[in-house]
Design goal:
alpha/beta; 7-stranded mixed sheet; 6-stranded parallel sheet; about 25% strand
Length: about 300
């Protein structure tokens, strides 16, 4: 009773499972060897013992890396295939887009005319955040990795400037891109990049840390460098941690706003699709070493 059998059609590739693959992980808890890898997915209900779902319904939720998932119906949400392609429930109209919306409009409260830096600007969250900040009237600087990402963020997302974090002249590049300093810094990277951007923040800047992908492959005991506390004090800046779950009350508002932007053509949905369930581990690994563009998805079937 209450369970739903879902046939997985799409899997979302996100960095968080990498943290849980570390046996020393503290938050969230580590995945025991032999367990199903956690991950969000979209699929079709094949059988249901939950009153809210019936066979043939499209749903999204924590399905894990498996072709058939038996999950509590309470953990699923319905997906409307008429609203947009169903896989967007994992990206621009799902956790990635909602996270970006809450970052831009709630946590950082971006205002017109401000200078906004988005780290990992070509990723699933960053690519939406760049566009939303632009729609809010901000000047946006995207941090990227490589020329492919630079072209994407500059030419397709409309960022005003891009900076390659691997550049030998990173500090000079940031100074040129941010002559007046950054009012807002949305950071999912951490590490040395965070410290470099912290040297370019403006007075009373708002820094929102919502990830630390630079340390995901370093083990749970590694302490990522989050910039110089001196700069926080000198600039009287605000640094806050961010978990999108804290803003659950606004998910409906966020999804409606994102869908409106998407329908009107104001928001570009960027996806990179790998086909075949057996390719899931390779697709996951590319999150960390291939400078991916847009939302990374696996088409299971």
């Amino acid at each position: 009773p209450g369970e739903v059998l879902v046939e997985t059609h799409w899997l979302s590739m996100d960095p968080l499972p990498r943290v849980r693959m570390d046996p020393a992980a503290k938050f969230p808890p580590p995945l025991p060897l032999g367990s199903v890898v956690v991950g969000r997915g979209v699929g079709v209900v094949r059988a249901s013992a939950h009153e809210g779902f019936g066979a043939g319904d499209w749903v999204a939720g924590e399905l894990g890396w498996q072709e058939l998932a038996l999950v509590p119906g309470a953990a699923l949400r319905r997906v409307d295939p008429e609203l947009a392609p169903v896989q967007t429930a994992l990206g621009v109209l799902g956790p990635s887009g909602v996270t970006a919306w809450c970052l831009v409009h709630v946590a950082a409260a971006v205002r017109a005319g401000e200078h906004v830096v988005v780290a990992a600007a070509a990723g699933s969250v960053g690519s939406v955040a760049v566009q939303l900040a632009k729609l809010a009237g901000a000047r946006v600087v995207g941090i990227v990795g490589g020329e492919r990402q630079a072209r994407f963020v500059r030419d397709e997302l409309g960022a005003d400037a891009v900076v390659d974090y691997r550049s030998a002249t990173l500090d000079a590049d940031l100074a040129q891109a941010l002559p007046a300093g950054a009012n807002v810094f949305l950071d999912s990277v951490g590490g040395a990049l965070h410290g470099a951007v912290m040297q370019r923040i403006a007075d009373h800047a708002r820094i929102v840390a919502f990830g630390f992908i630079s340390a995901y492959n370093s083990g749970a005991d590694a302490q990522p460098e989050y910039g110089r506390i001196y700069e926080l004090i000198r600039r009287r800046a605000t640094l806050q941690g961010f978990l999108v779950g804290d803003h659950a009350a606004r998910f409906g508002e966020a999804t409606a706003a994102l869908a409106d932007h998407l329908r009107a053509g104001r928001l570009r949905n960027a996806e990179s699709v790998t086909t075949g369930f057996e390719q899931t581990p390779a697709a996951f690994a590319r999150l960390f070493d291939a400078d991916p563009v847009g939302k990374q998805l696996v088409r299971v079937r």
